[in-house]
Amino acid sequence: xxxxxxxxxxxxxxxxxxxxxxxxxxxxxxxxxxxxxxxxxxxxxxxxxxxxxxxxxxxxxxxxxxxxxxxxxxxxxxxxxxxxxxxxxxxxxxxxxxxxxxxxxxxxxxxxxxxxxxxxxxxxxxxxxxxxxxxxxxxxxxxxxxxxxxxxxxxxxxxxxxxxxxxxxxxxxxxxxxxxxxxxxxxxxxxxxxxxxxxxxxxxxxxxxxxxxxxxxxxxxxxxxxxxxxxxxxxxxxxxxxxxxxxxxxxxxxxxxxxxxxxxxxxxxxxxxx
Amino acid sequence: xxxxxxxxxxxxxxxxxxxxxxxxxxxxxxxxxxxxxxxxxxxxxxxxxxxxxxxxxxxxxxxxxxxxxxxxxxxxxxxxxxxxxxxxxxxxxxxxxxxxxxxxxxxxxxxxxxxxxxxxxxxxxxxxxxxxxxxxxxxxxxxxxxxxxxxxxxxxxxxxxxxxxxxxxxxxxxxxxxxxxxxxxxxxxxxxxxxxxxxxxxxxxxxxxxxxxxxxxxxxxxxxxxxxxxxxxxxxxxxxxxxxxxxxxxxxxxxxxxxxxxxx
Lengths: 274, 264
Prior knowledge:
The complex is a heterodimer.
Chain A: H1 11-19, H2 26-38, H3 40-52, H4 55-71, H5 82-88, H6 95-115, H7 124-128, H8 134-138, H9 149-153, H10 160-185, H11 189-210, H12 212-232, H13 246-262
Helix pairs in contact in A: 1-3, 2-3, 6-10, 10-11, 11-12, 11-13
Chain B: H1 7-10, E1 19-28, E2 31-41, E3 44-49, H2 56-63, E4 71-76, E5 79-80, H3 87-91, E6 94-97, H4 109-119, H5 127-137, H6 153-165, E7 171-175, H7 183-196, E8 201-205, H8 209-215, E9 218-223, E10 226-231, H9 233-239, H10 249-263
Parallel strand pairs in B: 3-8, 3-9, 6-7, 7-8
Antiparallel strand pairs in B: 1-2, 1-4, 4-5, 9-10
Helix pairs in contact in B: 4-5, 4-6, 5-6, 9-10
């Protein structure tokens, strides 16, 4: 584009163009501009004219800068800190309220155990350990509880990995509370940990068939009706929560994990049941 | 902002049609909402028209791979979707805006599109640029730092479109994207559609016949789970006579084609 054969613009014309001098006729201004687009030499002259400076030109440039400054945002966008973005990749905000409910349930059970330890034949913490994570797990993959569910399900990342990430967040919040409570009551940690894990994997495995929120609700209600309620009504200590029940819980958790892995594809699709 | 072109983008495509379906059957609940549909879509903007309950949303969900076909053949971007395809790789090249699209109210527009870009496995170092570009494309740059709950219906739709295009999809599926847009925004949206249709296959389902007339290069007309017409907007107009129902030539053509299907 530099093979300009026509006459070059005069230095005076270029200087007048740079300062926007009204003495330069409009037609001449266009001619200079068109010429500058194709002529590197004259662009150099224009650069010189701007660099040397001229009161008119300086004030024009200052005005442009002031206007630009006024339009530019005062501060850079107030984006959230990096850790918050990172945390979001682990759990969506809709998980928080459900998760908190689960933690509160565990805390209340702990408090009751502290205040009135003789009230129930079995520590309350032991009774609620299986259901405490279910509140959060229900929201880990649910059309009803997650407004972004359909969008999430359509993305490449959708699948077991995302569901497990969210479940891990739930367990990371619930297990410490149970651990502290269990330590105070002097229980074998396996007694509350295994049922807790078995119910969590069980809810996810059943969730591949019935929808995770329904599975969590079903398991929670079953446990409440068959174990928690009878125990609280002093109908005797529940069988499954004794030392002898541990292998059963381990087997249940393992079976659930196998089913979950085999049916993991259900977490990439939209289902009426989710 | 200039975007770097990676080698896979400039590689020649190895498929004839972005979407190829034959005898496609998809269930919506207990009902077979898409029943024996044949469809071929190439690059360009395709309008998906049809009465309520024709199966438009179910078809779009099947194309977005969130519903598995109950029968027939479906190939997306050269990948057969029947059986157990590598959904991950395919989905990275899809963009989808559902009809009822939810959002987290406390997220800002930028955070929402960023989160979706993460879910869509956009390269980590590309996310800020891709997000900004998507937001600018839909004209929401001045509201990028506003929370989603403060946006109007039309702006929410545009945020939804921004997340759909953030990964520069080869196949873009928009279910009722013009709902809630005012006339000026609809005009802008049509221009955006035409720009998107230059390099990718865009399928837009809509009730608004005039949107199709203005922005689409091809029209697919669906009735009771099957495709009853595929052609250009001009062919739709040509199908309409003066005694058909409708206020515009396009509407008359639309009702003529639907009426022909009912009597058949």
